[in-house]
Design goal:
The structure is a single chain. By secondary structure, the protein is an alpha+beta fold. It is built from 3 helices and 3 strands; from the N terminus they run H-H-E-E-E-H. The chain has a 3-stranded antiparallel beta sheet, with helices on one face. The radius of gyration is 13 Å and the shape is globular. It starts with a helix and ends with a helix.
Amino acid sequence: TVFQNLKIKKPNSRYLTLGGWLFESFKHVPKIGESFQYKNVTFIIDEVQNRRIQSVIVKINKQNLQSKLGS
């Protein structure tokens, strides 16, 4: 999964997919460009079709990661 690839703990969710989890987290149908921060990762909505998230950009905040590792 995405979370395993990023080496972060999967959040508690009733959804099994990244898109489902993001819908749950946003609490609405997100628009292109909307973002959601989880731990040291930012998920940016890249494409939505028919109430489904088709594409997400994943950015890792290395500064935040370094400060957590150094703590």
